[in-house]
Amino acid sequence: MDSPRQVISHYSIKPRKSLGQSFLIERSIIENIATTANITKEDVVVEIGSGIGVLTEKLAENAAKLIAVELDNRLVEVLKEKFFKYENVQICSGDILKFDFRTITVDQQHKMKVVGNIPYNISSPLLFHLFSFRKIISSFVLMLQKEVVQRLVAHPGSKNYGVPSVILQMFTDLEKVMDVPAVCFYPRPKVDSSVIKGCFFENPKIELLDEEFFIKLVRESFSQRRKTLINNLKKSKLLEGVAEFVLKETLVYAGIDPQRRGETLSFEEFGNLSNVLNNKIKEQF
Ligand code: SAH
User: Fold this and answer.
1) Beta strand pairing status for 23-24 and 185-186?
2) Which CATH architecture has domain 211-284?
Protein backbone atom coordinates (compact mmCIF):
# COMPACT_ATOMS: atom_id res chain seq x y z
CA MET A 1 0.00 0.00 0.00
CA ASP A 2 1.29 3.47 -0.86
CA SER A 3 1.56 5.86 2.06
CA PRO A 4 -1.11 8.60 2.29
CA ARG A 5 1.63 11.11 1.52
CA GLN A 6 2.47 9.30 -1.73
CA VAL A 7 -1.19 8.89 -2.67
CA ILE A 8 -2.09 12.54 -2.30
CA SER A 9 1.05 13.67 -4.07
CA HIS A 10 0.34 11.20 -6.89
CA TYR A 11 -3.09 12.78 -7.38
CA SER A 12 -1.68 16.30 -6.75
CA ILE A 13 -4.13 16.80 -3.93
CA LYS A 14 -3.47 19.54 -1.41
CA PRO A 15 -5.14 18.59 1.89
CA ARG A 16 -7.83 21.06 2.96
CA LYS A 17 -7.77 22.20 6.56
CA SER A 18 -11.32 23.49 6.28
CA LEU A 19 -12.45 19.88 5.68
CA GLY A 20 -10.36 18.55 8.57
CA GLN A 21 -8.19 16.57 6.18
CA SER A 22 -5.63 14.76 8.33
CA PHE A 23 -5.07 11.24 7.08
CA LEU A 24 -4.17 8.39 9.36
CA ILE A 25 -0.69 7.07 8.70
CA GLU A 26 -0.11 4.88 11.74
CA ARG A 27 -0.98 1.30 10.86
CA SER A 28 -1.50 0.14 14.45
CA ILE A 29 -4.13 2.84 15.04
CA ILE A 30 -6.03 1.85 11.89
CA GLU A 31 -6.02 -1.77 13.04
CA ASN A 32 -7.08 -0.83 16.54
CA ILE A 33 -10.04 1.19 15.22
CA ALA A 34 -11.14 -1.73 13.04
CA THR A 35 -10.80 -4.19 15.94
CA THR A 36 -12.80 -1.88 18.20
CA ALA A 37 -15.53 -1.55 15.58
CA ASN A 38 -15.79 -5.33 15.63
CA ILE A 39 -17.12 -5.71 12.10
CA THR A 40 -18.52 -9.11 11.19
CA LYS A 41 -19.66 -10.63 7.90
CA GLU A 42 -23.27 -9.57 8.57
CA ASP A 43 -22.47 -5.94 9.25
CA VAL A 44 -23.42 -2.92 7.23
CA VAL A 45 -20.92 -0.16 7.97
CA VAL A 46 -21.06 3.54 7.22
CA GLU A 47 -17.68 5.20 7.20
CA ILE A 48 -17.62 8.95 7.68
CA GLY A 49 -15.02 10.94 5.77
CA SER A 50 -13.14 8.13 4.06
CA GLY A 51 -10.40 10.38 2.67
CA ILE A 52 -8.07 8.25 0.58
CA GLY A 53 -9.46 5.07 2.02
CA VAL A 54 -6.85 3.79 4.46
CA LEU A 55 -9.40 2.90 7.10
CA THR A 56 -11.97 1.96 4.46
CA GLU A 57 -9.69 -0.76 3.16
CA LYS A 58 -9.31 -2.31 6.60
CA LEU A 59 -13.03 -2.09 7.43
CA ALA A 60 -14.01 -3.58 4.08
CA GLU A 61 -12.09 -6.78 4.84
CA ASN A 62 -14.94 -8.03 7.00
CA ALA A 63 -18.06 -5.98 6.30
CA ALA A 64 -21.02 -7.31 4.35
CA LYS A 65 -21.40 -3.82 2.96
CA LEU A 66 -19.49 -0.62 3.52
CA ILE A 67 -20.80 2.79 2.52
CA ALA A 68 -17.99 5.33 2.40
CA VAL A 69 -19.31 8.89 2.68
CA GLU A 70 -16.90 11.58 1.52
CA LEU A 71 -17.55 15.27 0.86
CA ASP A 72 -14.47 16.19 -1.16
CA ASN A 73 -14.99 15.24 -4.80
CA ARG A 74 -11.25 15.02 -5.42
CA LEU A 75 -11.11 12.24 -2.83
CA VAL A 76 -14.31 10.63 -4.08
CA GLU A 77 -12.48 10.06 -7.37
CA VAL A 78 -9.50 8.50 -5.57
CA LEU A 79 -11.84 6.25 -3.60
CA LYS A 80 -13.78 5.17 -6.68
CA GLU A 81 -10.57 4.20 -8.41
CA LYS A 82 -9.22 2.39 -5.38
CA PHE A 83 -12.34 0.39 -4.61
CA PHE A 84 -13.92 -0.27 -7.99
CA LYS A 85 -13.14 -3.96 -7.67
CA TYR A 86 -14.66 -4.27 -4.20
CA GLU A 87 -18.21 -5.57 -4.46
CA ASN A 88 -19.00 -4.70 -0.86
CA VAL A 89 -17.84 -1.05 -1.01
CA GLN A 90 -20.07 1.77 -2.15
CA ILE A 91 -18.66 5.28 -2.43
CA CYS A 92 -21.12 8.01 -1.63
CA SER A 93 -20.29 11.61 -2.42
CA GLY A 94 -21.85 14.11 -0.02
CA ASP A 95 -22.11 15.74 3.36
CA ILE A 96 -22.55 13.29 6.24
CA LEU A 97 -24.62 15.88 8.11
CA LYS A 98 -27.23 15.61 5.35
CA PHE A 99 -26.92 11.86 5.03
CA ASP A 100 -30.16 10.02 5.70
CA PHE A 101 -29.19 6.73 7.32
CA ARG A 102 -32.72 5.40 6.72
CA THR A 103 -31.87 5.03 3.03
CA ILE A 104 -29.73 2.06 4.02
CA THR A 105 -31.65 -1.08 4.73
CA VAL A 106 -30.73 -3.07 7.80
CA ASP A 107 -32.72 -5.51 9.84
CA GLN A 108 -33.35 -5.19 13.57
CA GLN A 109 -30.72 -7.82 14.43
CA HIS A 110 -28.04 -6.16 12.40
CA LYS A 111 -28.31 -2.45 12.79
CA MET A 112 -25.56 -0.52 11.09
CA LYS A 113 -22.21 0.37 12.55
CA VAL A 114 -20.65 3.77 12.05
CA VAL A 115 -16.91 4.38 11.96
CA GLY A 116 -14.83 7.40 11.10
CA ASN A 117 -11.79 9.55 11.51
CA ILE A 118 -13.94 12.59 11.13
CA PRO A 119 -13.38 16.30 10.52
CA TYR A 120 -13.28 17.69 14.04
CA ASN A 121 -15.17 20.88 13.22
CA ILE A 122 -18.39 18.90 12.74
CA SER A 123 -18.09 16.74 15.89
CA SER A 124 -21.05 18.15 17.78
CA PRO A 125 -23.60 18.32 14.95
CA LEU A 126 -22.43 14.91 13.79
CA LEU A 127 -22.97 13.30 17.21
CA PHE A 128 -26.48 14.73 17.33
CA HIS A 129 -27.08 13.61 13.75
CA LEU A 130 -26.08 10.05 14.67
CA PHE A 131 -28.15 10.29 17.81
CA SER A 132 -31.22 11.11 15.74
CA PHE A 133 -30.77 7.77 13.92
CA ARG A 134 -30.10 5.80 17.12
CA LYS A 135 -32.88 3.30 16.41
CA ILE A 136 -31.03 2.00 13.35
CA ILE A 137 -27.39 2.47 14.42
CA SER A 138 -25.97 -0.02 16.87
CA SER A 139 -22.57 1.49 17.54
CA PHE A 140 -20.09 4.13 16.49
CA VAL A 141 -16.33 4.30 16.71
CA LEU A 142 -15.05 7.80 16.06
CA MET A 143 -11.78 9.65 16.16
CA LEU A 144 -12.47 12.98 17.80
CA GLN A 145 -10.51 15.80 19.34
CA LYS A 146 -9.25 14.62 22.73
CA GLU A 147 -11.12 17.36 24.62
CA VAL A 148 -14.40 16.41 22.98
CA VAL A 149 -14.02 12.82 24.14
CA GLN A 150 -13.20 14.05 27.64
CA ARG A 151 -16.45 16.03 27.58
CA LEU A 152 -18.55 13.11 26.38
CA VAL A 153 -17.38 10.74 29.10
CA ALA A 154 -17.26 13.41 31.86
CA HIS A 155 -19.05 12.87 35.16
CA PRO A 156 -21.39 15.32 36.91
CA GLY A 157 -19.58 18.14 38.69
CA SER A 158 -16.60 18.19 36.39
CA LYS A 159 -16.01 21.23 34.20
CA ASN A 160 -16.17 19.05 31.10
CA TYR A 161 -19.67 17.79 31.86
CA GLY A 162 -22.35 19.32 29.64
CA VAL A 163 -25.37 18.79 27.40
CA PRO A 164 -23.74 16.16 25.10
CA SER A 165 -22.45 14.21 28.13
CA VAL A 166 -25.91 13.95 29.72
CA ILE A 167 -27.84 13.19 26.54
CA LEU A 168 -25.41 10.63 25.17
CA GLN A 169 -24.90 8.96 28.55
CA MET A 170 -28.67 8.50 28.85
CA PHE A 171 -28.92 6.65 25.53
CA THR A 172 -25.46 5.22 25.02
CA ASP A 173 -22.69 3.23 26.60
CA LEU A 174 -19.59 5.30 25.98
CA GLU A 175 -16.02 4.26 26.33
CA LYS A 176 -12.81 6.07 25.51
CA VAL A 177 -10.69 3.58 23.58
CA MET A 178 -7.31 5.29 23.22
CA ASP A 179 -5.49 8.56 22.84
CA VAL A 180 -3.90 9.19 19.46
CA PRO A 181 -1.02 11.67 19.18
CA ALA A 182 -0.77 14.11 16.28
CA VAL A 183 2.22 12.26 14.76
CA CYS A 184 -0.15 9.48 13.67
CA PHE A 185 -1.65 11.74 10.98
CA TYR A 186 -0.53 13.46 7.81
CA PRO A 187 -0.72 16.44 7.73
CA ARG A 188 -0.32 16.66 11.49
CA PRO A 189 -3.30 18.23 13.26
CA LYS A 190 -2.65 20.93 15.86
CA VAL A 191 -4.62 19.04 18.50
CA ASP A 192 -4.47 15.64 20.13
CA SER A 193 -7.10 13.05 19.37
CA SER A 194 -8.89 10.17 21.05
CA VAL A 195 -11.01 7.32 19.79
CA ILE A 196 -14.39 6.78 21.40
CA LYS A 197 -16.79 3.87 21.09
CA GLY A 198 -20.49 4.28 21.74
CA CYS A 199 -23.29 1.70 21.70
CA PHE A 200 -26.81 3.05 21.39
CA PHE A 201 -29.41 1.55 23.68
CA GLU A 202 -32.78 0.61 22.26
CA ASN A 203 -34.39 2.70 25.00
CA PRO A 204 -33.06 5.34 27.39
CA LYS A 205 -31.45 3.92 30.53
CA ILE A 206 -34.19 5.57 32.62
CA GLU A 207 -37.69 5.19 31.28
CA LEU A 208 -38.75 8.62 29.98
CA LEU A 209 -42.32 9.84 29.55
CA ASP A 210 -41.19 12.19 26.81
CA GLU A 211 -37.72 11.95 25.26
CA GLU A 212 -37.93 15.32 23.52
CA PHE A 213 -38.89 17.01 26.77
CA PHE A 214 -35.91 15.40 28.50
CA ILE A 215 -33.51 16.70 25.83
CA LYS A 216 -34.95 20.20 26.01
CA LEU A 217 -34.84 20.16 29.81
CA VAL A 218 -31.14 19.26 29.78
CA ARG A 219 -30.39 22.06 27.29
CA GLU A 220 -32.33 24.60 29.35
CA SER A 221 -30.62 23.50 32.57
CA PHE A 222 -27.23 24.31 31.06
CA SER A 223 -28.31 27.46 29.23
CA GLN A 224 -26.34 29.56 31.70
CA ARG A 225 -23.83 27.26 33.26
CA ARG A 226 -23.08 29.30 36.36
CA LYS A 227 -26.75 29.73 37.25
CA THR A 228 -28.72 27.51 39.58
CA LEU A 229 -31.22 25.06 38.19
CA ILE A 230 -34.17 27.09 39.42
CA ASN A 231 -32.85 30.29 37.83
CA ASN A 232 -32.34 28.63 34.48
CA LEU A 233 -35.65 26.77 34.51
CA LYS A 234 -37.90 29.56 35.74
CA LYS A 235 -37.08 31.54 32.57
CA SER A 236 -37.45 28.59 30.29
CA LYS A 237 -40.14 28.49 27.59
CA LEU A 238 -40.43 24.79 28.26
CA LEU A 239 -42.00 25.46 31.66
CA GLU A 240 -43.97 28.54 30.72
CA GLY A 241 -46.99 28.96 32.94
CA VAL A 242 -45.52 26.96 35.82
CA ALA A 243 -45.20 29.32 38.79
CA GLU A 244 -41.77 29.58 40.42
CA PHE A 245 -42.98 28.19 43.74
CA VAL A 246 -44.59 25.21 41.98
CA LEU A 247 -41.35 24.63 40.10
CA LYS A 248 -39.38 24.75 43.35
CA GLU A 249 -41.76 22.31 45.03
CA THR A 250 -41.55 19.98 42.07
CA LEU A 251 -37.75 20.00 42.14
CA VAL A 252 -37.77 19.20 45.84
CA TYR A 253 -40.33 16.44 45.21
CA ALA A 254 -37.95 14.99 42.61
CA GLY A 255 -35.25 14.98 45.29
CA ILE A 256 -33.29 17.84 43.77
CA ASP A 257 -32.23 20.95 45.64
CA PRO A 258 -33.34 23.89 43.42
CA GLN A 259 -30.11 25.70 44.28
CA ARG A 260 -27.98 23.07 42.58
CA ARG A 261 -26.48 23.82 39.21
CA GLY A 262 -27.43 21.77 36.17
CA GLU A 263 -23.83 20.59 35.85
CA THR A 264 -24.11 18.63 39.12
CA LEU A 265 -27.03 16.42 38.03
CA SER A 266 -26.44 12.91 36.75
CA PHE A 267 -28.38 11.68 33.72
CA GLU A 268 -30.48 9.56 36.10
CA GLU A 269 -31.45 12.69 38.06
CA PHE A 270 -32.26 14.56 34.86
CA GLY A 271 -34.38 11.61 33.73
CA ASN A 272 -36.31 11.47 36.94
CA LEU A 273 -36.76 15.26 37.04
CA SER A 274 -37.96 15.25 33.45
CA ASN A 275 -40.68 12.71 34.28
CA VAL A 276 -41.81 14.54 37.43
CA LEU A 277 -42.00 17.87 35.58
CA ASN A 278 -43.84 16.23 32.73
CA ASN A 279 -46.50 14.95 35.10
CA LYS A 280 -46.75 18.32 36.81
CA ILE A 281 -47.37 20.09 33.51
CA LYS A 282 -50.04 17.54 32.54
CA GLU A 283 -51.73 18.04 35.93
CA GLN A 284 -51.73 21.80 35.50
CA PHE A 285 -53.02 22.17 31.97
N1 SAH B 1 -10.69 8.64 7.24
C2 SAH B 1 -9.56 9.20 6.52
C3 SAH B 1 -9.65 10.72 6.35
C4 SAH B 1 -9.81 11.51 7.60
S5 SAH B 1 -9.76 13.24 7.32
C6 SAH B 1 -8.28 8.81 7.22
O7 SAH B 1 -8.32 8.45 8.38
O8 SAH B 1 -7.23 8.87 6.61
C9 SAH B 1 -11.50 13.64 7.37
C10 SAH B 1 -12.20 13.36 6.06
O11 SAH B 1 -13.56 13.77 6.16
C12 SAH B 1 -11.64 14.08 4.87
O13 SAH B 1 -11.45 13.18 3.83
C14 SAH B 1 -12.71 15.13 4.50
O15 SAH B 1 -12.74 15.46 3.14
C16 SAH B 1 -13.95 14.43 4.96
N17 SAH B 1 -15.08 15.34 5.27
C18 SAH B 1 -15.02 16.61 5.74
N19 SAH B 1 -16.27 17.08 5.98
C20 SAH B 1 -17.13 16.09 5.64
C21 SAH B 1 -18.56 15.98 5.65
N22 SAH B 1 -19.34 16.98 6.09
N23 SAH B 1 -19.12 14.83 5.22
C24 SAH B 1 -18.34 13.79 4.79
N25 SAH B 1 -16.99 13.84 4.77
C26 SAH B 1 -16.38 14.98 5.18
Assistant:
1) antiparallel
2) Orthogonal Bundle (1.10)
